[in-house]
Amino acid sequence: MTSVAPESLAAGVFRRTGAKEDKLRTVFPNLPFEGHRKKELPNRDYDTNIIKTTKYTLLSFLPKNLFEQFHRFANIYFVGLAALNFVPVLNAFQPGFSLIPICVILAITAIKDAWEDFRRYTADKEINNMSCLIYTSTLKDYVEKCWKDVRVGDFVKVVCNEIIPADILLLHSSDQNGICYIETANLDGETNLKQREVVRSFSRVETPFQPEYFNGKIICEKPNNDLNRFKGYLETPNSKKIGFNKENLLLRGCTIRNTEEASGIVVYAGHETKAMLNNSGPRYKRSKLERRLNIDIFFCVGLLVVMCLIGAIGNGIWQTQFPELPLFEVPDENGNSTPPALAGFYMFLTMIILLQILIPISLYVTIEFVKLGQVFFINNDLSLYDEHTDSRVQCRALNITEDLGQIQYIFSDKTGTLTENKMVFRRCTIMGTEFCHQENALRLAAHGEADSDEEDRAAPRRELRGRLKQNHGKQNQKNLRRCHSARAYYTGQRRKKSIGLVDSEVAFSSPLETDVTPDKKLLKIVREATAQMDTWCMDGQASDSSYIDFFLALVICNTVIVSTATEPRQRVTEPPTLKPSTYSLEKLHYLLQKLKTGKISQAWTSNQSNSDQSSGTKKAQAIADGTEPPEGSWCEVESNGASGGCIEKSCSSRINMESKDDSQGITGEDHVGSELCYEAESPDEAALVHAAKAYNFTLLSRTSEQVTVRLPQGAILTFEVLRTLAFDSARKRMSVVVRHPLTKEVVVYTKGADSVIMDLLETPSREHPEEEKKMKRTAAKTQKHLDWYAKDGLRTLCIAKKVISEDAYEQWSSFRLEAETAIDNKDEMLLETALNLETNLTLLGATGIEDRLQEGVPDTIEALREAGIQIWVLTGDKQETAVNIAHSCKLLDQKDIIYTINTDSKETCESILDCTLEEVLQYAPARPASTGVLNMNVGFTSPPVANCPTFGLVIDGRTLSVVFQGELQMKFLELAKHCRAVLCCRAAPLQKSQIVKLVRDKLKVMTLSIGDGANDVNMIQAADIGIGISGQEGMQAVMASDFAISRFEYLKKLLLVHGHWCYTRLAKMIIYFFYKNVAYVNLLFWYQFFCGFSGESMIDYWMMIFFNLFFTSVPPIVFGIMDKDISAEMLLDLPPLYKSGQNSEGYKWSTFWIAMLDAFYQSLACFFVPYFTYKDSDIDVFSFGTPINTVAFFTILLHLAIEIKTWTLMHWATMAGSILFYFVVSLAYCATCVTCNAPSNPYFIMEMQMADPVFYLVCFITPVIALLPRYLFRIMQGTFSQALVIEARKLDKLDKHNKEKVLRQWRINLRSSDTTSPRSDMSSPLSPRYITANTINQEASFSLETDNTRHPGKWKVNGADGPLPPQSGQMESEHNCGLVVTSDGNTDTPKDNSDAFCLGHQRSFSIMTI
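The structure assignment produced for this chain is given below.
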């Protein structure tokens, strides 16, 4: 790029009108303005790179913190009462004393907030003072400065393993191809490398980059938080525009990898960077219990008002009994007394001040302490620790732990959540021929058995290892807190270059994924096809074999980064130097010919059936020509009962090691391939590259401009990469445009979802009927194989290619360049150019990749089902794949009647929903009787009875769009409510969140979403509780979640055990707090009946303050943190125990008001027993109040002791400590307080009371009388109650043998109640019966009627009964609207051949409207 003088650049800077940004941001380099004043700088209006995440300063802390705390109604309430107490006519206590409780609460909260803000300040200071290299024109070099000194327009250089300080537009890279690799772990948790490119026209500059000669200006979009969007252009002085996008932007917080150095210009700094804009801080969620708590607070306020009104009215009545002005009533200066109405109003306010503790001021602080303790125990549960990933459960939202115990609906992703997201190459089809790879299936089975054995051996060591790794886990937990989601705490500015890192740092590189055993038949065909490649290479001709193109597409069409085993994070840009081959071309050709007729043929022939003994060469030629393959070429694979594609067994179950050795001996260079590591952005890409490598198509190196591949015979081809069209969710495919090194043809390799690739295939020409027939046959067979793969639960991808002319490519490239430089409608233009290129494709084949089910998923889903939780799976995978996985994980059962709805017509969808709902409602089960564990009613719904079927619903994304756009949500929701499971396939991320919000808002239920990928973030954030799984797809789901776990099976204990405990503990603690305050404040209320409702107190005010703040504050906290009403083992063995939380049995209206009534009764006992004891005595007021205060203290603590279900050392210590602390403080206070409350004071009152035997008698009798009803109630409840929770506590007390015996009998009863009628004609879940209509006229009559007397196995369509079509191994009959559409296209009226109800049916409505 030519240079211009800085003066000319400066002249153009100030022609910019206005100081504010409009729609775009214009960035000028700062170098020409070094030394100028700030107001003369061109980028002065943009943020600096200083970050500040603190909320306060030294001056603003006190007012701002108080302002935030006064957002709580309780704080305003108590401050207002304290202010009223300063009014002389209203004060019930000394004015200063009334401020003590609220000041203590505000001070504790302020200290906590100050500590948290100080930690943020320390982190900000550390980051702002990290060093980086900034170019200065004075020294003509980069100098080291702090991050806080970086400005928009500065040129910054970052070196390998250094963290990027700001959002930088990449202008230079030490890589010769202008590539820079970054690791975004600090941003989204993903450790796999991502590629960034230098802006076009800067990448090929041969001279070193010199910032002072940069003469352009940058026009880009305004700062936003979209990490996947960045567009703009660089304008040169001659008005030439050079476009750039997100691939040219280095984001703040990422780390440079595999690149010695990179430099560019800062476009966003500080809080305007995308990382900081995504750091919105923690999302505050209010738990269901907290919302209920706020309502009960208002009930307490209402109760307080009633009591104060009674006091005011009572005072007025009492004063009317005096015929003259009483002596204690002091008149004003005019001799007038206070009017009765005004005196009553004054007394009302005085009573509010006196009884203010009825509102639990310390409850909110106590709840925070309890939740912190609960989170601590959840985080340190070793059974939730994953040894393989060295990770534990993370509680990222501290205020909704109790919601874990009230979940009613779970919405789960499939890939990576229910499955491992470890993609393993399983099968493939090439040009219509299917290769089953049975040897690879056997390898995977052996691998699974080895994993199980290893798991058994590692179990005894897991607890010890977990403890040893506890500290490390805490450090990981610190880095993943929600408030640090977009800005991790960086431990240092520069990390030393990593050398010899362990293989585990390379994603998707486990032996399960990398070791692929080739199919022997395909290996033979590939070997024979490559035998001719010597001639092709010498003649400069491309291969005409579809098999070669198929594997070349697997190797080329991806973004896999090649590194070495010794340095797995160091990219390979050049093919390794190979040793000279010991074979000449003639010898290689001779060897191949020998292998054709030698050992390999003998080894293969000995394992094949007689129908597969034809010549390998002829078979390869026949397949390449597209002729019909023999029946024996189809393979049979045993996969959970799947029946797709099984015609004849022809694959050996034994791996022929001799043939494997011979195949490796062809090249003599396999040691080079074994030293390579492949790092991919997705596990699918890595699986396909490893599969190609198994057939000796080895990816040696990759840059942005070329890909080097080693072919099976040892030849190395370097393809020039012309364009890469990355995968996106709109196109659902990716393409790579390359130039063939031999023929110089422009070839487009494309891979993607079969739903889109099959529609993009070229239309065969009618001029060549043979070719047309061949292409149609290939497409039909491939589609059949894809259906088989999907039914086997495999993820499918189609592979295709296209050869275009040079002129066509040049024309397309110009359009693409124009789209890349556009600002407006850039995304639409890029999509349009991609669609123009990816048409008229030639189908090569398809692949089936297995995503293995996670260990423990079926048991977890079964347990959650027993707990009364409805589970929905929302996935973007194919319908058949998702249904297969749903059966494997027990989400769907063989007995379920499954309704599959696929349509894009609103009218059709509405009719189907109405018809299906009508049938489902006919068989909706009445609420059956419950079955207890100890032959008692346990209070939970038992499984359906024999004659009542269960239903499942499968719906695709297309139909979901119709449901939401056609206002059919309520009908869909009504149908889904009656289904045992709901499976939403091909669902977009937005649709997932819409479904969660629909169920949450319309059904008013507690929802939980769980996922592992970025596409699950919306769903996770929409639910009441979001759980992220730290899996193979990075940490974006974890960053957006409330809780994070490493495996789906941990959800079982997290909900059934910790969820139950957290809810039960907190609910009981809150109820106890309300009881405690009401019982104590009523003592003062009863005293008003004996003091003329004057607002006086018989208890010293300091003792009243200490009572709630210190004497009775610690035991409830320990109770809320550590109490266990039921053991963890019992909660896991009896999942229905979880329903107590779903039904809010621990905290509901009846529980609250019973506690209030109990508090009133106990206060009566605590007041009147001492009253009648000391009646007619000469004791003073405080001597009367001290025993009342003491017996109330004992009663309240013993009440808590009755509620505690599991006594630990901590419980005993806090109880004993509270009693000891009460007497120590009381004795010390009474001994030292001579004139504390003049004219009266509590001096030596406690000492005198403890010297009186009557005091001890009162302290013993009163709590017994007060607590006797509650104690008897608990005894009766434990003896005669039929609640499952009570029965579980009884089981906990049994010995292990008897406990297991009772539980075993309960499970037998449960299974017997779930037994249905015999199913002689039950369909396999993997071979569903489909009722489909491929074509239907919109104007055709469509009416579905139901008959109340018929079985659900039949439809009454247009007045005629018809059963489901019989199952067969051929193409299923298709049924719709009274017609059966057979495979040959003829239509017949269905015959009613059976009236028997047959479970296992799968109803599928697949309406494709013309």
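Interim note for the steering committee: The first strand starts at residue 24 and ends at 27. The first helix runs from residue 6 to 13.
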